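Marked as duplicate of an earlier ticket. Keeping the data here for the record.
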Amino acid sequence: MAVGRRRILVGGPKANELAQFLLELGSRRDLTTARSFAQQFNGDKTRWAKYLNGSEVIPSRTLGRVVKHVCGTDARKYAQDLAHARTLYERAAAEDRAAGAKGDAGGAQVAHRELITAQQRLTDSQVKLAEARDADERARAIIAMLMLMCARAESSIHELDERNNADRAQTQQSLNDARLSLVRTKQELKRARRRLVVAERARKALRKEVEKARRETEKLRRGACGSRLLLDDDAERRPFPDRREIDLGQDGDPVRYQQVLERIVREGERLKRDLDIIQVHTGRLGLGSVVRSPVAIGLALVVLATLVVPVITGFFGEGPDDQPSPTPPGEPGTMGEARWADPCGLLDSASLSRFGKTRLVADYGEINRCDVLVVRKGVEVAEAQVYLDKGPVEFEGIPVRTVGNVTIASFPREEDACVRIIATADDQQVQIIGKQWDTPAPNLCELADAATDHAVGVLDDGPVPRRAKEPSQNSLARIDACTLLDAAALRHAPGVSVHDKRRGFGSWKCEWSSADGGSRIKIEYSRDNFLKDNGKPVNIDGTTGFVAAREDGPDNCVVRLPHRTYTNSYGYATIEFLQLTANSPQPSGQLCDAAKALTATAKNIAKHIAEKWQNRTDGARRKHLSDARKASGMNEPT
């Protein structure tokens, strides 16, 4: 009979006897392990292991099945083993019940002790909870006090910030006022010095000329007695015209003195030619030295005529007979007559020298524009532009300040530009732009502010300064841009009406548009050093122009056509050109063809006006010269 491994019995004595009996029964049928019992009688292997080591009493029914399986058909043996098994089972079961009762009593004692411990812990917890609540109340009181202190501290900090901001603003305002006062003082000093020099020069020159004219008058009076060209009594008593009464006004403005002196220089060559003509007449009359007095009369009248004509006629428009003369100086902070306003008079390169080397450029871009270039290490890195334009201007959401009669708006900086706008007292505007061209560039808004401070100082003292001299006789500056296209020409731009036009500043720009605003034609004048990089070269009525399709959008075409080339104050060639911009929802080829046709018409009209101006100016000069000869008693040359 196979015997399994010796097992360790862990139950009570009776339980161990039952387990030992169970092992003996199993050994008869080779049931020596818990697995073999579980396979034979079903059940859990772990459970059978407990039956076999005495830790758990096998159920009586299961025990009966084991006995029957082992005894088989031997009835006598079955009865004996079954009775012995029941005895062992009852003893083991009684032992197990007694152990359970004893365990329940011990468990009750343990539970009682645990209950006392729990009650003690509960009491301690309640005490600690009360202490925690007291601490919470104290903490809340402390927090409330700290919050009150924080609120007071924040209020104090806010008040300090407000006072600091107010002090800072007041300090900044005082600094700005001091800077403005310094700029004004420098300007006034410079202006006073310039006036002093100009006035002294003009006084000496005019005194010399007046004295010379008086001496010539005396010679004329003495010579008139011995010649055939006698003066009437009124002529003898009439004093030599005082130049100040004719040209300068009664206030003796030094600027007007300077204008007279410049005109005298310009007329020098013409006077020389006229004197040659008069000398030819002298020789024909055979008067010799005796007729110098009539010659002097003619010369004096020629001088007066050539000086008076420009002052009376002005220089803008189609001819000298229909032009506005420069208006008298206006109120401080005003633009005045637009075509005489000089944008360069609002700039001073020296005042911007802290940003780098500076150079004033008066012959670039639009006619109503002037620049100061800033150069660093030989590179033009930035510029301050002054651009005169029509108004009025409204500033919504833009910080503004008022100085004297003008309002200054400071716009936020864009990518490569910073803009300031001065609204003048007569509802015009001065745009001042700090613009970047290269690096390292200065702070653009500081550059624009410095240029603005200078311009404001000038405008606080008077209007926008007047132009010192007239433009060339063949310059586009003399021509009203709105006269360059008529109804017949605008047929190339369907829908655009000759009556729906807007005139730009100084009449140097004009724009025509359709009723719905979808089509527009714009003409403006500008200047540049070269145009070859401004589009495709094309022949426009015998002149090489430059066409740029889609320059400012898909429905856009720009044509630039040179009008004249001249040398600027720095000795460089400058091109004055006419720029026509066409906007219309048309194919680009068709739109540019229409733009070229319109440009050709504008070019011919501008050329005709310039020639008409030249002819009428020459005619007026010849007429005044003829009147001077007649007044001197001379005949016209044959």
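See parent ticket for discussion. The longest strand covers residues 379-390.
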